[in-house]
User: Fold Non-structural maintenance of chromosomes element 1 homolog from Psilocybe cyanescens.
Amino acid sequence: MVSSGDVDRLFLQAILSRGVMSSQLAQVIWGKCIKAVNESNDALNVRHSKEKDAWEGFVSKINKSLDKLDLEFRALHDESSGKEIKGDEIAQLATEYTPAEITFFKAIVEQIMLAPREAYVISDMAALREPALVGLTSMTKMQAEVILTSFVQKGWLLRSKAGHYSLSTRSLLELLPYLKSNYPDEILECTICLDIMTRGIACHTVNCKTRLHFHCFANYRRRHDTCPSCSTAWPRGAKDKPLLPVGEGAYAGDGRRRTRTITPSDEEDTEEEPEQPSQDPPPPKKAARGNVKKEQRREADMEVDNEEDEEDIQQAPTQATQRPRRSTRR
Ligand SMILES: [Zn+2]
Ligand SMILES: [Zn+2]
Assistant:
């Protein structure tokens, strides 16, 4: 017989199977668990409230029930859910930055994640325009510049010689749950090591999804000369044509600014009231982003390869040190 206690059980199962998630998603799941339980037993009418108190009450109840379990399970759960229930990993930045600066940081991260052609960079010009575009009207360009420098100095962003900002290893590791929940369609996984990647190579075959870190390419290429997915012949070097760059090498101008489509759960984001005031109608491109689009972008890449490659080669030494480390996630 389904009882109200099943809400907790369902919720814990969902949390444990997902590992890490944002607090918004956790609250959506909570609502769905309540709905499922109410629907399977007419006599039950478990109340669901979007009030913060109700959610906090539920979290503390869950934690109490976990207390009764053995230590090992509790530790596992604390690892995987204790952290995420507190929310947004980006809140780590809160110890160092003001809410306005965090809003700015999120805007930069968004532009990096939504950069066209898997470039995963934002130019310094575009970065300085962001505060005004996300409603931080009192932040001057000079202030923005100082804050950007601080993001680089504290290891959250990298700045290339060409003046492009990208995500640092620190950001890729520490903000991974945030990136995964906010940019699930933009995150690329290396075909070999399965870690997130924002710089490396893409197979040139249309519709081939192979993406490799530079170091993963080097290891793989020593023993194989064809793509692991589509078996097309590959050149020797990661920078050789017709392989395509992922990361700064794919940058070819800022193009039209893109923003993420706002979903209902985003509205609960308390961190930043003025999230996207300039977000009137979402750019038409956005809705259609996906693998098909990506392939089209990839095709467009090939036309501009020439100019990119020179830039690419100059960047090679930096890229070697900027590679995301392998995480323990396997
Ligand atoms: Zn890899
Ligand atoms: Zn391929």
